[in-house]
Design a protein that fits this description.
Elements lengths: L22 E2 L11 H16 L2 H7 L2 H13 L6 E4 L2 H9 L10 E5 L4 H11 L5 E5 L9 H7 L4 E7 L11 H10 L3 E5 L11 H4 L3 E4 L12 E5 L43 H17 L1 H21 L3 E2 L12 E4 L3 H10 L2 E2 L1 E3 L3 E4 L7 H17 L13
Parallel strand pairs: 1-11, 3-4, 3-5, 5-6, 6-7
Antiparallel strand pairs: 2-8, 7-8, 9-10, 10-13, 12-13
Helix pairs in contact: 1-9, 3-9, 4-5, 10-12, 11-12
The structure holds pyridoxal-5'-phosphate.
Pyridoxal-5'-phosphate binds next to helix 4 and helix 5.
Length: 399
């Protein structure tokens, strides 16, 4: 294991207050809050208090695009190609609303391990029969066979909304192969990068994805309410989203009764933006941009590899992929009583979570020390061996 003194990323620990009193290994769920977020939220309140309504014209109206530009640099998107929304679910609805399915092109392809909220959006639209869904099965509940996924994408496919990294198991899907196959048959892809952005390097321009969406809650350390939507620049002038609002108008303040779409990325906005969430999110983006995702990934691969060895040495079964090229930043560890063990870990200030079928989800991030990896595995082993989890046996996932 690398000597802690050689890990230059550990200097960031001081910027994350929660690391002082917990072993925080849950960045796949809620990344730690940067200390700077406190002052950014104070800036928001101060601006509102002192500038009042003038704040809108002094930056607030532009924030969905200016803050989007900070996300853009993390995901390889050009400036002016990302807008901020509240969450991924609304972004998926907005994307789907850009299309007119026809009987010859009305199929949506995704895997059964897609994030459920994303599936709900398409399922709800499938009810009236205008789209149909082909769900690609997983054999093990952890991975999705690439060949099977690619074979499901055909000339009738309209959209392929897929997770880059699966939320449950950390399996990293082959975004390039899926995008190439979709384009070969005239379909478009929606890359859900929620579980990859900030921990797995990728470039939406180079991958040539049509849309990408994600949020800031997890690896970006930006907190809730700051979802992002990337749209490939050559689509900006042709798509006409039906999930829309006055911010998508070319001149919102003309209060024109007729919608005339903005000629650029702003046509993918809808109503008034969530300003406090955008203030809160920026500090995380700044840190991720400053460190760079390549460096974060290098450390993540080293630490997740180390976690796998430690967990296996302690007699646990690791269910997430063993091959680093096939996983994101999360390791999952199974045990019949994984839910109860998780509850006991949290009680002891080891912050992780549990997903049925995968087990305890453990995610080191750039701020994690190697010592914390040893501590969590030692604690899990102790909880298992002493059955200290026994009082929690009926618990379900709480977050
Ligand atoms: C892959 C993935 N997509 C989407 C979401 C969340 O979607 P929303 O932003 O709509 O809450 C999550 C959250 O766990 C996720 O892991």
């Amino acid at each position: 294991m690398e000597n802690t003194l050689n890990d230059e990323l550990l200097k960031w620990r001081l910027e994350f207050p929660i690391l002082g009193n917990t072993v925080y290994l849950i960045s796949h769920s809620l990344g730690a809050m940067p200390r700077a977020t406190l002052s950014r939220l104070a800036d928001y309140a101060e601006t509102w208090a002192t500038r009042g309504v003038r704040a809108w014209a002094e930056g607030w109206w532009d924030m969905p695009v200016t803050v989007g530009n900070q996300v853009a640099s993390i995901i390889g998107a050009p400036p002016g190609s990302v807008v901020m929304h509240q969450n991924v679910s609304i972004c998926q609805s907005l994307i789907l609303s850009c299309f007119e399915p026809t009987p010859k092109r009305n199929k949506i392809v995704y895997s059964e391990l897609n994030f459920p909220s994303v599936m709900y959006v398409y399922e709800a639209h499938a009810r009236d029969g205008r789209i149909r869904i082909e769900t690609v099965a997983s054999d093990d509940g952890i991975t999705v066979p690439l060949d099977r996924f690619l074979a499901a994408i055909d000339e009738e496919t309209l959209l392929v909304p897929f997770s880059h990294v699966l939320f449950k198991s950390g399996f990293l899907q082959n975004a390039r192969a899926i995008t190439e196959r979709a384009h070969e048959v005239g379909a478009m892809v929606v890359l859900d990068a929620y579980q990859s952005a900030g921990t797995v390097p990728f470039d939406v321009t180079e991958l040539n994805v049509d849309f990408a969406t994600g949020g800031s809650v997890k690896w970006l350390c930006g907190g809730p309410g700051a979802g992002y939507l990337y749209v490939r620049p050559d689509l900006h002038q042709t798509l006409r989203p039906k999930t829309t609002g006055w911010m998508a108008h070319e001149a919102p303040f003309a209060f024109d009764p007729e919608l005339k779409y903005a000629p650029d990325i702003r046509r993918f906005l809808h109503g008034s933006p969530s300003i406090p969430a955008l203030y809160a999110a920026e500090s995380g983006y700044r840190i991720i941009n400053e460190i760079g995702v390549d460096k974060i990934r290098e450390k993540s691969v080293r630490q997740t590899t180390c976690l796998i060895s430690l967990a296996e040495e302690a007699g646990f079964e690791v269910t997430s992929p063993k091959n680093a090229a096939e996983r994101g930043g999360t390791i999952t560890v199974s045990h019949d009583d994984a839910a109860a063990i998780t509850k006991e870990l949290i009680r002891r200030e080891f912050i992780v979570d549990y997903r049925p079928g995968a087990g305890v989800r453990i995610s080191p991030h750039f701020y994690t020390s190697d010592e914390e990896l040893e501590l969590i595995v030692r604690e899990m082993k102790e909880i298992r061996d002493t059955r200290a989890y026994a009082g929690h046996e009926t618990v379900e996932a709480a977050f």
